[in-house]
Amino acid sequence: MAAPKKGRRPAGAQGRPGRTLVLFLIAMVALAGGMFASGHNTPRLGIDLAGGTSITLKAKAEPGQEKAINKKNMDTAVSIMNRRVNGLGVSEAEVQTQGDRNIIVNIPKGTNSEQARQQVGTTAKLYFRPVLTVAAGTPAKPQPSGSPSPSASKGADKAGKNGDKNKPSSTPSAKPSAKSTPQGRALTDALKADGKPSPKTTPGIPSTPPKPGTTPGATPPVPPTGDAAAVAKLQKQFEALDCSTKESRAKAAFGSKASDPIAACDQTGEAKYILGPAEIEGTDVKKAKAVIDQQRGMWIVQMDFTGKGSKKFQSITGKLSKQQSPQNQFAIALDNQVVSAPSVSQTLSGSAEISGSFNQRSANDLANVLSYGALPLSFEEQSVTTVTAALGADQLHAGLIAGAIGLALVIIYLVLYYRGLALVAILSLVVSAVLTYVIMALLGPAINFALNLPAVCGAIVAIGITADSFIVYFERIRDEIREGRTLRPAVERAWPRARRTIMVSDFVSFLAAAVLFIVTVGKVQGFAFTLGLTTLLDIVVVFLFTKPVMTLLARKQFFAGGHPWSGLDPQRLGARPPLRRSRRTPAAPTDPKEA
Description:
alpha+beta; 4-stranded antiparallel beta sheet; 5-stranded mixed beta barrel; 14 strands
């Protein structure tokens, strides 16, 4: 007789269910402990349950570009807005088109929601433009002949100091302004490599005195930029430009092209510029991030250029370094407003930095919009509506009641049909519910998951999927008992067949949830995500909890003895006695010759 092969477990082997069950319960306790330790004891809620803000944005066409408002550009804008909001960590934000010109943005109440509202519709068109002329941000008032305007002179001084608020003056009697502009300067790795600055100079920012003959406070002339009519028109726009209000700053260069010189304001309104055609565009920026400069103790935005952008940056800084102030400056213009206008004294290459009066939030805002790109269209806010959670709470209450009724019906059915086995199913449902709740609470801060009404529906549907797995296993056990086997071997022999069926069924459910998550947007994704999550947890619970518990209960006399209330009574199941082998007596030969 051949000896059995070592290392192979027989079909009826029972393993170590107690150890499996203990490890599973330890893992559950660890997850629950992590939930309480993180301080997030409840799942994050979506806008329909927590309330929030709904914003309607309308696309507006720039002059001569009416055809730009099309489905492709609108879809691109939706995608960029989604990435911006997700980059801020705002969960369950919905961005979708409405009609052919409107975009609806729903932002749940919570962390960063106000910050997301401020930048979701920002066009974020970034250009590096050479500075041609700079003056005070407000038009100069008429003054008596020979007397310069004090306000204009003050503004011009501030504009002249735009490259560096601590820039030393070349005039010994001049004193630094007490109120400096918040605009900063751009540095690069090549700029930093120059070593320590001397006490009287700053790398990259020359202390060249103003050209002789210039009058403080006077509006500088526009350098030649094309035909005389275009120069005169630009000069007129520049002189009339008033940067004192946010609206006027936003409209200063609206509708301009990258190839056109423009008159633009800085973001504070203290200075205005005439800028040449764009030399570098936002698409030449590979990535941007906000970091804190440890040496200067200030927030900066670092930008890495693409290969093409790096060459452009080296070329433009090489040209500007040969010019006199202010034409040795280049303006970093975001949505045609000057963020920074640093001076250049040498050719630069590599990555650039934008520094100024940034705090952590404003630096992250700028890095975020630069990283995810510019919107292909300009938008204006049509309406901003505050959404209350009252309606969602009523719907959630009704949904929870429906879920409770459904769960109660499932439990009643299990008790009536499976009797004692219903205890295993109910315990498994409770374990599955606890795991689902804990993981949803942990996923909130981890991946910005937020629970909305469709997600609650997905969790309710999962009750049926989980109960179906128990029923498959119980029926396989009953089939084995009907074949005449006792409970302990029946539990082990039924498991391989039940396991295959459960795996196939859950795979189909998970596949459907994955496809639904990929092809849909908005709240439907919450339903698909929850359905997929609970399907995976169903496999975990059945394998690591239901099966070990069933193996342990099979050793108890109440179940092993086939008690009528155990749900495994052989007589009620119509079990037949086990087949026994018997020797058959050979029939007597009928042919005399065979005898």
